[in-house]
Design a protein that fits this description.
This protein is α+β, with helices and mostly antiparallel strands. It folds into 2 domains: 278 residues, Neutral Protease, domain 2, CATH 1.10.390; 126 residues, Nuclear Transport Factor 2, Chain: A (Roll), CATH 3.10.450. The chain has 11 helices and 13 strands. Strands 1-12-13-9-8-7 form a 6-stranded mixed sheet, with helices on both faces. Strands 2, 3, 4, 5 and 6 form a 5-stranded antiparallel sheet that branches. The chain has a two-stranded antiparallel ribbon with strand order 10-11. The longest helix has 36 residues. It is elongated, with a radius of gyration of 24 Å. The two termini are 44 Å apart. The structure holds zinc ion (ZN). The site of zinc ion (ZN) has 7 residues, from strand 1, helix 6 and helix 7. Zinc ion binds next to strand 1, helix 6 and helix 7.
């Protein structure tokens, strides 16, 4: 299905270049993945002083206490489970699961083994206290949770990922009896974390941790090597670096959200924001970095150029969400193309630049607009945006471009505010920038 969609999108391939792509299928987008609980919350907020527990009144009136008691015990089970993951104690972990549910036990064992491979610095489960437990089956209660995990040497802070667990009493103890009752919640998204997708292998080095399906270790090591080649170019251009980056290159299509697309076809890879909870009740989050998810179709051909593009998005992701798309994608394309120039593809980059300058820049009236950026003409949007950034770097230098980016990213996406920021940093209006770009002939 994806291949069909992809055939219409030309992928430029140069000699010795697997997928550095000037336009089309493997173009990558920055994705603001929405944390599960950030949107679509329809349940009532926490009752004042009620610990977020609300219940259907019954004749006996004793239910609130029973529910509070249940949630207290469920929290204890979750705590024991998290401690078992961190300590590597499988028996203690499995003691939290209904042993009669063989499929669940098997799946859970796999998740445990996978999580242990990541090298966890912190790991916990946090229950969404504002969520009212849902009745499932005859005696089960589904609760919404966040798994909160920090990978050693990779994540700057623990990031949250949504879960729905159903608990029921077995032999007088609350146990996990199902892990998929809430899987279809509309705000859950359609992707799954790599540890939920069968046995994994990992490779670590040079500031990245690559996760692949078992049996694809060679590709993980290849991607570590490609990352090593990409990261210096990213650091040089953005003046910043994440502590480390998680790179996900799974075979399973569920590793990628179906909405992560550009111009109507799936992105080659995406930089996905990591959300870290800023309060125990899981009502607010902040972006503390990004991870990279490679499209399964391209997992074995993704190279340093695609990674440089995504790593650029990742490095800038904590600055804010409001930078115009032409600057976000233009900067990533700039880093990608700089690396291409330094890797023996200067002629191809120059050819593309010339083509864009003679055909796509000439009719430009305004800077590429956010809302139509990923539309039918996205190839030109990316290319034109690259040239805008290249022009800005050539004329003003990287420090100024980075300062402009930081200011725009944390500001408002209102056109007037952007214009003001542009004038502040470049002493230039948007119209003047477009006019200057039309006279641009290339760097040096
Ligand atoms: Zn991009």
């Amino acid at each position: 299905m994806d291949d069909e969609q992809l055939t219409g999108a030309p992928v430029k391939r140069g000699p010795g270049r697997a997928v550095w792509v000037a336009g089309g299928a493997a173009l990558a987008v920055a994705v603001a993945a929405v944390a599960w609980s950030v949107v679509g919350r329809e349940d009532p907020g926490p009752a004042p002083g009620g610990g977020g527990v609300s219940v259907t009144p019954t004749a006996t009136g004793s239910v609130p206490d029973a529910e509070t008691q249940m949630l207290t015990e469920i929290d204890a089970v979750l705590k024991a489970r998290a401690a078992a993951v961190l300590a590597g104690r499988l028996p203690q972990y499995l003691a939290t699961v209904d042993a009669k549910n063989a499929k669940l036990v098997q799946r859970d064992k796999q998740v445990f083994a996978n999580l242990r491979k990541l090298g966890l610095k912190q790991f916990s489960y946090a229950r969404e206290t504002s969520f009212v437990p849902e009745k499932h089956g005859t005696d089960g209660w589904a609760v919404r949770l966040m798994m909160v995990l920090q990978i050693e040497g990779i994540d700057a802070a623990p990031r949250a990922t949504p879960l729905g667990y159903t608990f029921a009493q077995r032999g007088g103890r609350w146990l996990l009896v199902a892990d998929d009752d809430l899987a279809a919640e509309s705000d859950r998204g359609t992707y799954r974390e790599p540890w939920d997708l069968g046995p994994i292998e990992v490779a670590r080095g040079g500031g990245v941790l690559v996760v692949v399906p078992a049996g694809e270790g060679a590709n993980a090591r290849r991607l570590v090597q490609e990352s090593r080649e990409a990261l210096p170019a990213v650091r040089l251009a953005t003046r910043r670096a994440q502590q480390g980056i998680l790179v996900i290159a799974m075979r399973d299509r569920k590793s990628m959200d179906t909405e992560w697309a550009t111009g109507g076809h799936p992105a080659g890879a995406v930089s996905v924001r990591n959300y870290s909870p800023t309060d125990a009740a899981l009502t607010s989050f902040k972006v503390t970095g990004s991870r990279i998810v490679i499209n399964p179709t391209y997992r074995e051909t993704s190279d340093r150029f695609l990674l440089a593009h995504e790593f650029t998005h990742a490095a800038l992701s904590t600055l804010g969400n409001s930078a115009p798309t032409w600057l976000v994608e233009g900067f990533a394309m700039y880093v990608e193309n700089r690396l291409a120039e330094q890797s023996g593809s200067a002629d191809q980059v120059a050819d593309w630049r010339d083509k864009l300058l003679s055909k796509s820049v000439k009719p430009l009236v305004v800077l590429p607009i956010d809302g139509i950026f990923h539309g039918d003409y996205d190839e030109e949007s990316y290319g034109v945006s690259w040239l805008i950034v290249e022009y800005l770097v050539t004329k003003y230098g990287l420090d100024k471009v980075n300062a402009l980016y930081a200011d725009l990213a944390k500001g408002s996406d209102d056109p007037a505010a952007r214009e003001q920021t542009l004038r502040k940093h470049l002493k230039l209006s948007e119209a003047a920038l477009v006019a200057a770009l039309k006279k641009y002939t290339g760097p040096s």
